[in-house]
Amino acid sequence: MSQRFSASLSTVFDIHWNSFPIMIGPLILNLFDQENIHNLPRNLLDVCCGTGYLGKFFLESGFTVTGIDLSEEAIRLAKLKTKSSGSPAHWIVGDASNFNTLQKYGIATSTFDSLNYLEDVKALTNCIGCISSHLVDNGLFVCDLFTAMGMRTLNSISIDEREDSLTIIRGFYNQNDAYAFLSFSGFISNSTDSYTRFGQVLKLSVYKIEAIKNILEEHDFKDIRYYKISSKELIQIEDPESLERVVITASKDKSRNSSLSQSAKP
Q1: Together in a domain, 132 and 200
Q2: How far apart, in whole angstroms, are the C-alpha atoms of residue 179 and residue 205?
Q3: Which segment of 93-97, 162-166, 174-178, 259-263 scores lowest on mean pLDDT?
């Protein structure tokens, strides 16, 4: 299963670390429009959706959106963020490795390194299986994640000090066992002119890109590609392990499309 962000950490991410989903949304939409030769439905499944920034962008671009996240606070913030949007949105508290919305989608996403936060290879495999079962024929899956090279950058300590919060981030990457830890601690202001202390340690798993490719192929995906993120576009590359963060896209193979699993729970 995926790791549940605490309410305080979800709030900190929502306020201060929203630049990535805001930046990558237009790049993903542009890629979808370029690749959409099959007239795919304009509906989005956002797995590990966080507080809804990516979903909000797609809503404002005319999509219907379903978002899934294990954090109740993240889902609450996503609902608040999109309650006045023109298109309908459905925000679900659920496990990324075991869900069933009983719908099919033209595009599915999992961004901001969310796959790295899944518990292990089994959880990752289950997640990709769930996503595959929710895509229409030729539906597009887009995700990004830290590579092993990117994990090395987490061996550091950083302090983010603002008027309304103080966040200390400590990172540790264990190269031999292919995992990393991120420790978040600090204070965040609240409505009573006081501060609430928070702290949480999250584990990140390192996955070989070739292993992810194999899992995708085993779950009926084809045309797997790798991209580098630039400020204006996603640039296709051949060596994903050379990047700190890589975007992976894949299309659902229509010749092997299976029905939604009734055993999965929303």
Answers
A1: no
A2: 4
A3: 259-263
